[in-house]
Amino acid sequence: MDNDLSIRDLVKRFGGFTAVDHVDFDVPKGSFFSILGPSGCGKTTILRMVAGFEEPTSGIIEIRGKNMLGVAPNQRPVNLVFQHLALFPMMNVRENIAFGLKRRKVTGAEIQTRVDRILERVGLPGFGDKKIHQLSGGQKQRVAIARCLVLEPSVLLLDEPLGALDLKLRERMKVELKKLQNQVGTTFIYITHDQSEALVMSDQVAVMNKGRFEQIGTPQELYGQPNTPFVAGFVGDNNVWPGTVNEVRDGEAVMRTQDGVVFRARSRETLAPGDRVNLFLRPEAILIDPGEAMGYNSFEVAIRAVLFDGANSRLLTVTPTDLEILVTLPQNQLFAHLEPGRTITAGWRPEAGILFRSDG
User: Fold this and answer.
1) Quick check: 14 pLDDT over 60?
2) What is the pLDDT of residues 160-178, one digit of tens each?
3) Could you tell me the residue range of the domain that residue 99 belongs to?
């Protein structure tokens, strides 16, 4: 498979601080690749090195097979969309999009054709004469992307471009960006701290922490098969339940929680009896009143509060040792009897939980 971007052993140090620590990855041509991680983990530094605004301390950056070492930012086949868009308010939409083409000395007729074509592709036909202040937040977003795409980059870099939008618009733009990337076929490299953005839009996601990639995979792999406790905790919501391994058998570990409850669960590590572990268990994996469901791990908790949030409603429950456990409320049943103070039985399948050795 052809790669539009290849990174090999990339390192960036600022004095004694290592912002990017021996990172390797490939981005296939025409894909949507996200780097997901908390603020300060090094993800924007990677983007700036790809764009040419920062020089690597060491390592290789190749775009379509060409080494970018020493290549100036304006000579690289990449464009960068910032969070704050940086559109020119005194120019109309057409003039904003044409700005880079004029600097490249493209002829007027060619500019007209290319601007009209890109406006069609980003779903803004007929918007060329509008002023920037006349546009909605989502439309401004598309103009900023169109201004980059009209230059026909090999790779489009997006640095938290939805961060300044309100929640409802951000939800809509996640879908719009994915559709747009599919339409235009340009490789997108997207930086975000929002795991929902990364999961919804990406073909592949790299989860970054303290300058390193903890795991690269599809959204489904990161969500269902996290390789590290950090990925398990950062991607999606998880309850974390400490305990100790009693025994290991048939690829499963049997653990005893601090409440004295015994659970069976899968593990991503080789465990031995006596190991201290954390169980990561997603709220939606927990079934209320499982009855006689075969093979389920069951436990009792007291309801502390009902957290109503429409389709995302949950119970906040507590174990006898006051450990808080979130439980997702299914949408296809009525649970009027679930009131604060009531004790309920809950259960989950052993393959739904995952164990990692505790760091103490």
Assistant:
1) yes
2) 887 767 778 788 888 888 8
3) 3-233
Residue 145 and residue 220 share a domain: yes
User: Cα separation of 185 and 318, whole Å?
Assistant: 48
Q: Are residues 54 and 41 in the same domain?
A: yes
Asked whether 173 and 81 are in contact (CB, 8 A), the reply is no
Q: Same domain for 199 and 258?
A: no
- Are 197 and 316 part of one and the same domain? no
Residue 228 and residue 314 in one domain: no
Whether 85 and 176 map to the same domain: the answer is yes
- Read off the pLDDT of residues 68-116 as tens digits, 9 standing for 90 and up: 999 999 899 998 887 677 788 899 999 999 998 888 888 888 889 999 9
Q: Please give the Cα distance from 257 to 265 (Å, whole number).
A: 12
How many domains are there within the chain? 2
What is the C-alpha to C-alpha distance for residues 125 and 260, in angstroms, rounded to an integer?
A: 64
Distances (CA, A) of 208 to 84, 162, 191, 230: 23, 19, 10, 9
Q: Which of 318, 297, 314 is nearest to 306 (CA)?
A: 314
- Same domain? For 250 and 305 the reply is yes
Please tell me the least confidently modeled range out of 55-59, 63-67, 128-132, 336-340. Answer: 336-340
What is the gyration radius of the CA atoms in the chain, in angstroms? 25
Q: Which amino acid is at 20?
A: V
pTM of the model: 0.87
Confidence check: pLDDT of 6 > 80: yes
Contact 35, 191 (CB under 8 A): yes
12-17 LR contacts (CB < 8 Å, sep 24+): 12/42, 12/45, 12/46, 12/49, 12/54, 12/56, 12/57, 13/57
